[in-house]
Write a structure and sequence with these properties.
- The complex is a heterodimer of chains A (796) and B (553).
- Chain A has 796 residues and is α+β, with helices and mostly antiparallel strands.
- Chain A contains 13 helices and 44 strands.
- In chain A, the strands form twelve sheets. In chain A, strands 39-40-36-41-42-37-43 form a seven-stranded mixed sheet, with helices on both faces.
- Chain A is globular and about 85 Å long.
- Chain B has helices spanning 40-43, 77-88, 92-105, 110-137, 146-172, 204-226, 233-243, 249-259, 272-298, 348-362, 370-388, 392-395, 408-418, 427-432, 534-552; strands spanning 181-190, 193-202, 308-314, 317-327, 338-346, 368-369, 423-425, 444-445, 448-449, 451-452, 500-501, 512-514.
- In chain B, the strands form five sheets. Chain B has a three-stranded antiparallel sheet with strand order 3-4-5. In chain B, strands 6-7-12 form a three-stranded antiparallel sheet. Chain B has a two-stranded antiparallel sheet with strand order 1-2.
- In chain B, a hairpin with a 2-residue loop joins strand 8 and strand 9 (448-449).
- In chain B, helix 3 (92-105) runs antiparallel to helix 4, helix 4 packs antiparallel against helix 5 and helix 7 packs antiparallel against helix 8 (249-259).
- Chain B starts with 39 loop residues before the first helix and ends with a helix.
- The chains are: A alpha+beta (796), B alpha+beta (553).
- At the A-B interface, helix 8 and helix 9 of A face helix 1, helix 4 and helix 5 of B.
Chain lengths: 796, 553
């Protein structure tokens, strides 16, 4: 950052001013730059950050607590356990928004909220805040987060993101809307700001802001912005723009469009708010967990409030929107990954407390007696439906902030309570230790889809599409080593999924823009976490590694410093190459001694092409993937590496939309090693972050971010002590013999009953999700058998 | 040991495949090193296990730096041997590091130089294939920030180009007479498939082939690197990928309209002019180096097994023996790949065409006729690309013909029949005024090609004729010689079923010449090359591409 006068500092504040919510400040501090160079952790911070228990040198974590075994998913209409093990208990009145909720604006009289959605063409909903009900739904377009009400309350303005036009609605006294005008603009549209005569509309992809004359519905002026203008604020005769993808705030003179200043910020400047007096602008930076403070007089960044909520500043709190109380004394900052709204002293940055939200809050509005919070994912998935609905919360003020803060902490600390004690290292006993971790990442399956037919675990054969008849290797491995039947994949689809499998996190840019398929996830700067990904993490800490086939997080450095860590023979995500052949290539390299500490292998063919004519049948693709998995374990188990190796098998996400009787996020995970309990089924709630915390403890790596830092390591899967000295003494050392290919390679014929439906799926338009694939796979495998009632979403 | 040749030459092509152990092979062709595809348990190390990442650049057994200036010339044998070993393990990246370690101490060592050139070429060809395979796997991202992406792609291509140029520089630093580099095996994979394995002695002839191959790859990469890609890049890539199997006239028009976007395919503002100029040198050297390779090998009389050799094929022809293609049996994928050397036969005319092509890059007015000179060169390149599987990365199975199953004369005949273009190419004039590739495309308006047909009764409501994919008039249509573009151009005496297109520059920046004699068109009945005007260019395309379109029906 440039032009900064102050530096970050932690300070314990005592007796700060009481805010309009009646909350007393917590012992958290703002950052006053130039005051002190260090950030000493504070008392109580660990609880707030949900830090794991202190490491136990003897590594005796104890048995998992009862809480650890609870299944993920909805508890009731007001609470849920998320894939990562955290709980959400949103405060206030709740208004489900049956879609991916993105943006919210309030009417000047505070009676109505206007909510945009980007997942379907039901783009705009009117919510009566008194009755907490949706009173109108406007359809026919999709909207990102661009919604504004003119100050006179006469119009509601919505940027139709994909359609690339501004929708103008006349607003009646009862809040209902009538379409008034459509103004064609350019590109994928985002934020809208407005006065009574002019709407300012940001085009995320064209890097422009259009000034639209509301009287004539014409573009009066166009302003050039930086890359990906995310939010707009009008303050006096200036327009402030957060350029998300280049980490700047731009100040534009409305009169002539001149850029008055471009201020560098922390990564991911997001929602903006200016104080009514026009002296300060607050800029939450979602990827670095800070709120930057801009002096709008000197046009300098003069402060930075640290909201990481972690004693070591680990990231992944994700502040992405902000509102200001009418008296300008309290900032309300939504922290997407912590499912909370932080109440911040606007002058000092002291955290007064937090309010619990639904999953992944993305918008906040405040007035004198009410806080309105919008969350993207509401209460999460159901067994039959993966994509969650949004949620609007109406929280009366003042609130019981101390109690709600305690609730938030309890919610977020939940995974860290799964074990009474922690370990400083895993997979080590005496002179022996695990030195090699192999992570095999496959594609898009829930637990029940593949392992639902496995005896002795929590499966539902009614939902099993690729059971033992197709995946004998996975079933054999699950029986012989460790099978997890309460493991959750955090993402909903692959754009997020491969970020999770490479960095134990998915940034806000991809979480929001995946609906538009806009991001080059894991490649472009805006999509990458500020924290290191696992490859950078290994490189930074001297852990040798090799990446087979993962382009996400790797691409930007592929021909740079990561060039040495790939095998160019191994294709990046390419389902036209058989997974068996990919496995042979890996084995070829292993055979010549390339077997580093961390080996990441993408085996993607179980994604399948549905029943597209001319492509391999889904059964044969899943069987190919299964055989490849078996081949890899077979080779390792016969090699000298075996007694020092652990193999994990996961899916990148559960997005085949074929359901799971526990929760649509539940997915497959296996741990394979002589060090694990043979034939063990772990029913502890784990997720991808747990997996990475486990890997890090094995390889001696620190956490990458707050997600893995707070996750429960997979303590329960390890047996006591190292493997025995030889095969004769320890059956766990016996080689695994890969089972034959269960389904021969076969091509889907043009006259297949599901060929036409498969061909009609949006393979090109939706690079990743392919909506409808789950229904196709169900029909291919189950024919006319209807999904069970709890999984009826498969048919949608 | 066997005589083998380089994929990278992209010029050695089989017209009569020879099986492994054929009688031309001095020792019957039995391999004497293990191929790296044997059963995994047979290859698992049973003693010391190297855990270090392959980035460990330090040579594992490198000798320490020389202690004193008078210690004599450094001995880089260990590094060079390690490079050879890595080549045998199909690890060209690691081989390159070993040879570079040798060069750091022995910068003039011919083995180190040749090894680094060879390993660099193999390594970066594999990497190029992988990167282009990624493009094939990219879906449609509805809206992108094209300019940022375009600069990223440009940067990556430039890095790749720099690595290949380094390999060529090393090859050019060598005297052919100094090259005597023996390998047990040096593998080239394209994707997970082994495609080529070289065994035996690389000599001066092989050095020329390496130069020719690198020149070809670099020349093409230069052209790509020289373009400003800051247009609708991903959409265009997807259109190209999808279009091979289904583009109709409207689709072609849409694709061309994308390419002629005013931001797209001009010269890159920073690198364009320089890099485009370098493609002239790179491509211009290909034919010359290839002919030099043939001449060098013809004069060679080395009894040792060679990577490649030339045989007298009689009747003034020579046979370049190129070995070995590697084939993995899909029914026995765990078995070592079979090896089958192949042979390409060239007559004097074909070699003269190759030599003349080089001259044409340097000398304005030296025309390369399509039928007699361009087609033999193109057939050579296509067949090599098909044999080695390199075309797979770009075309998949979209081509209606399996070029890999055809010998070179057959491809030459096929090209002559399908594309009997009456044109000649003036490469040197083309390079004298570099402008980017947009100018070779016809004009578009409103996302469609500006085009007219001379079969008014055959046009549908969209203005498209009933022939192949709306591109040509139907077979039964009545053709009428007509004026074009609202009378701007008078009837020209040729009633054509092919669309009459508008061109900003019918000479394609000086590249094109035409000879339309034989069409019976007044004014064009005299043989000889002429610079084309709009009529001549459209007539040439009509004559030259109609048979190809017929194949698509």
């Amino acid at each position: 950052m440039q032009n900064t006068k102050w530096v970050l500092v932690w300070a314990v504040l005592v007796g700060c001013a009481t805010g309009p919510d009646g909350a007393e400040p917590e012992s958290r501090a703002s950052a006053l730059r130039d005051a002190a160079p260090s950030r000493p952790p504070q008392a109580g911070e660990g609880a707030d950050a949900a830090a794991p228990p202190a490491p136990d040198a003897a590594c005796a974590p104890g048995a998992p607590t009862d809480e650890a075994y609870a299944p993920g998913g909805r508890i009731d209409d007001r609470s849920a356990i998320l894939p990562g093990g955290r709980r959400v208990t949103p405060a206030g009145a709740l208004v489900p928004i049956p879609d991916a909720a993105m943006g919210v604006a309030l009417s000047p009289d505070g009676r109505h909220a206007y909510v945009t959605s980007d997942a379907t063409n039901e783009a705009l909903r009117v919510v009566d805040l008194e009755t907490a009900e949706v009173t109108q739904t406007l359809t026919g377009f999709r909207a990102f987060r661009g919604v504004a009400v003119t100050p006179d309350g006469a119009r509601v303005l919505v940027a139709a993101g994909r359609e690339g036009d501004l929708r103008v609605f006349d607003r009646a006294a009862d809040g209902q809307l009538t379409p008034a005008a459509v103004v064609p603009l350019e590109g994928y549209l985002g934020a809208v700001a407005a006065d009574d005569t002019t709407a300012y509309v940001a085009s995320n992809t064209a890097s422009l802001v259009f000034a639209v004359d509301l009287a004539t519905s014409t573009v009066r002026q166009t302003y050039e912005t930086g890359n990906y203008p995310y939010d707009l604020v009008i303050s006096g005769d200036r327009l402030f723009v957060s350029n998300f993808a280049e980490d700047t705030v731009q100040v534009v003179a409305l009169a002539d469009g001149a850029t008055l200043a471009t201020l560098e910020t922390a990564k991911g400047p997001s929602g903006l708010v200016a104080d009514p007096g026009g002296a300060r602008l607050y800029v939450p930076c979602v990827d670095e967990d800070v709120v930057e403070v801009v002096d709008t007089g000197t046009l300098e960044v003069v402060g930075s409030f640290d909201l990481s909520h972690h004693p070591e500043g680990l990231l992944a709190a994700s502040p992405n929107d902000v509102a200001l109380s009418p008296d300008a004394r309290t900032l309300y900052v939504v922290q997407a990954d912590l499912n909370q709204v932080d109440l911040i002293d606007a002058d000092t940055g002291a955290v007064r407390g937090s309010l619990p939200t639904a999953w992944y809050p993305v918008g906040v509005q405040a007035d004198d007696d009410r806080l309105v919070v919008l969350s993207l994912k509401g209460l999460g998935a159901t067994p039959g439906r993966l994509d969650p609905d949004g949620m609007l919360q109406v929280v009366p003020l003042p609130a019981d902030v101390p109690a709600l803060t305690a609730q938030v902490r309890d919610n977020n600390a939940r995974p860290s309570r799964f074990y009474a004690h922690g370990c400083a290292r895993l997979g080590a006993a005496g002179p022996e230790k695990i030195e090699h971790v192999v992570l095999i990442v496959r594609e898009n399956k829930t637990y029940d889809m593949v392992l639902g037919d496995l005896e002795g675990a929590n499966g539902d054969p009614a939902l099993t599409l690729f059971g033992e008849d197709v995946t004998p290797n996975l079933h054999a491995l699950a029986r012989r080593y460790v099978n997890f039947d309460n493991f959750y994949s955090n993402p909903e689809e692959s754009l997020q999924g491969h970020l999770w499998t490479t960095q134990a996190d998915c940034g806000d840019f991809v979480e929001k823009l995946r609906y538009s398929q806009l991001p080059l996830a894991g490649y472009e700067h805006a999509s990458l976490a500020a924290s290191p990904n696992i490859f950078q993490h290994c490189l930074n800490h001297g852990v040798s590694f090799r990446n087979y086939g993962e382009v996400v997080s790797f691409g930007p450095e592929l021909l740079g410093r990561m060039r040495d860590f790939i095998d160019p023979k191994y294709p990046f995500f390419n389902m036209d190459v058989r997974d068996e052949d990919k496995a042979r290539e890996v084995i070829r390299e292993w055979g010549r001694g390339i077997f580093p500490n961390f080996i990441y292998i993408s085996l993607p063919n179980d994604h399948t092409y549905g029943a597209r004519p001319g492509k391999p049948t889904p059964e044969s693709m899943v069987a190919d993937n299964d055989r490849a998995t078996g081949m890899l374990v077979d080779w390792i188990s016969r090699s000298p590496y075996w007694r020092r190796t652990i193999v994990f098998i996961i899916e990148d996400d559960p997005q085949s939309h074929a359901g799971d009787h526990v929760d649509a996020h539940r997915s497959i995970a296996l741990a394979i090693s002589p060090w694990v309990k043979p034939g063990y089924v772990s029913s502890v709630h784990y997720d991808i972050a747990s997996l990475y915390r486990t890997i890090e403890l094995i390889l001696g790596l620190p956490p990458m971010n707050k997600n893995d830092a707070n996750a429960a390591p997979m303590y329960d899967i390890f047996r006591e002590g190292p493997p025995g000295p030889d095969v004769a003494q320890d059956a766990a050392l016996t080689p695994f013999e890969a089972l034959p290919l269960a389904v021969p390679h076969a091509i889907t014929p043009a006259d297949h009953p599901m060929a036409a439906e498969s061909e009609a799926l949006p393979w090109r338009e939706d690079v990743d999700g392919v909506p409808g694939l789950g229904r196709v796979l169900w029909k291919v495998r189950k024919g006319d058998v209807a999904p069970p009632p709890y999984a009826k979403g498969i048919d949608e | 040991m066997r005589r083998l040749a380089l994929l990278l030459a992209l010029a050695g092509c089989a017209d009569d495949a020879v099986t492994r152990g054929a009688d031309w092979m001095p020792d019957g062709g039995a391999p004497d090193v293990a191929v790296p595809d044997a059963a995994p348990d047979a290859r698992a190390p049973d003693a010391a296990i190297p855990d270090a990442a392959p980035s460990d650049a330090a040579p594992r057994d490198a000798a320490p730096p020389d202690a004193a200036p008078d210690a004599g010339p450094p001995d880089c044998t260990a590094e060079i041997d390690r490079g050879r070993e890595e080549l045998a393990y199909a690890a060209p990246h690691e081989a390159l590091k070993a040879f570079e370690a040798a060069l750091a101490r022995c910068p003039d060592d011919p083995d180190a130089l040749f090894g680094a050139a060879l390993a660099g070429a193999l390594d970066n060809v594999e990497l190029t294939y992988m990167l282009f395979s990624v493009i094939g796997a990219v879906g449609n991202l509805a809206i992108t920030r094209d300019e940022a992406l375009a600069e990223d792609v440009h940067g990556e291509l430039m890095r790749l180009r720099a690595e290949l140029q380094r390999a060529l520089d090393r090859a050019n630093a060598l005297d052919p007479d100094d090259v005597d580099f023996e390998v047990d095996a040096a593998w080239l994979y394209l994707g997970v498939e082994p495609r080529v394995v070289y065994r035996g002695v690389f000599d001066g002839g092989d050095l020329h082939l390496v130069r020719a191959g690198l020149g070809m790859i670099l020349g093409l990469l230069d052209v790509m690197c020289a373009q400003d890609l800051a247009g609708p890049l991903l959409d265009t890539v997807n259109d190209l990928r999808d279009g091979f199997s289904g583009l109709d006239f409207a689709g072609i028009g849409g694709l061309v309209a994308r390419l002629t976007d005013d931001r797209f395919l001009g010269l890159h503002p920073v690198d364009g002019a320089r890099v485009f100029a370098e493609s002239r040198a790179h491509l211009g050297a290909v034919g010359r180096e290839f002919v030099s390779a043939i001449e060098w090998m013809r004069a060679e009389d080395d009894p040792r097994p060679q990577v490649s050799r030339v045989q007298d094929a009689g009747a003034g022809r020579v046979r370049l023996v190129v070995a070995s293609l590697a084939h993995r049996d899909p029914d026995a994928p765990d078995e070592p790949p079979a090896e089958s050397p192949f042979v390409a036969t060239f007559d004097g005319a074909a070699l003269a065409a190759l030599a003349h092509a080089s001259l044409a890059f340097e000398t304005p007015g030296e025309l390369v006729p399509w039928r007699t000179e361009a087609i033999p060169v193109l057939a050579t390149v296509l067949q090599a690309g098909a044999k080695f599987g390199a075309l797979d990365a770009f075309l998949g199975d979209a081509l209606p013909v399996d070029l890999g199953a055809l010998d070179r004369p057959a491809i030459e005949a096929l090209l002559g029949q399908l594309m009997p273009l009456p044109i000649a190419l003036d490469f040197s004039a083309f390079y004298d005024d570099p402008t980017g590739l947009r100018f070779v495309l016809p004009r578009t308006a409103g996302g469609a090609l500006v085009a007219e047909w001379e079969c008014p009764a055959d046009l549908d409501e969209r203005g498209l004729p009933s022939g192949t994919r709306g591109i040509v008039c139907g077979g039964d249509a009545v053709l009428t010689d007509a004026a074009h573009f609202e009378g701007a151009l008078p009837p020209d005496g040729l009633a054509s079923s092919f669309p009459y297109l508008a061109w900003d520059d019918p000479t394609w920046n000086g590249l094109l010449w035409v000879d339309l004699s034989g069409l019976g068109v007044p004014g064009w009945d005299a043989p000889g090359w002429r610079r084309p005007d709009l009529f001549a260019l459209d007539a040439a395309l009509s004559v030259g591409l109609s048979p190809l379109l017929g194949l698509l029906d």
